[in-house]
């Protein structure tokens, strides 16, 4: 009986540690990243849909590790509202790397991308699915993440 209790406690502790690891950062869907996406942090959002209010500014941090050298990259956003697709101008690329990162990106090194996205008062109240790409110089998706957003 005591062995069974010890095993049960062990598995509960393992589950607790696993939950802490999984919930660290914002939960997003990977939609074809060729780099390893290490972490995504969307300010005020752990489990989507991410609720943002107008007007506001939204911090987005993406930590990733490419497995090949990348000369440059750009950011591309797409918003999907039902069947409608709205391309959105991306905020930048190499210029938004933080913690001393710069282009070219070296294979196996970890990089931190930080963007500040405005949520303008002219935006309508709606629910959208955002797809965010960090595309290399050959338009390959280093990072492709997808997450739902509710604008209030």
UniProtKB/TrEMBL annotation:
Look up the record and give one Gene Ontology term from the biological process aspect.
sterol transport
Q: Give Gene Ontology CC terms.
A: extracellular region
Signal is among the record's keywords: yes
Q: What is its main location?
A: secreted
What compartments host this protein? Answer: Secreted
Q: Is Ligase included in the keywords of this UniProt record? A: no
Q: Which Pfam families match?
A: E1_DerP2_DerF2
Top-rank taxon, per record: Eukaryota
| Keyword set, alphabetical order | Secreted, Signal
- InterPro entries (UniProt xref): Ig_E-set, ML_dom, NPC2-like
What are the residue boundaries of the MD-2-related lipid-recognition domain, all occurrences included?
28-149
Q: Name one GO molecular function term.
A: sterol binding
Which N-terminal stretch is annotated as signal sequence?
A: 1-19
Family recorded in the similarity comment = Belongs to the NPC2 family.
Alphabetical list of PANTHER family matching this protein: NIEMANN PICK TYPE C2 PROTEIN NPC2-RELATED (PTHR11306), NPC INTRACELLULAR CHOLESTEROL TRANSPORTER 2 (PTHR11306:SF68)
- The name this protein carries in UniProt is MD-2-related lipid-recognition domain-containing protein
Q: Which organism is it from?
A: Petrolisthes manimaculis
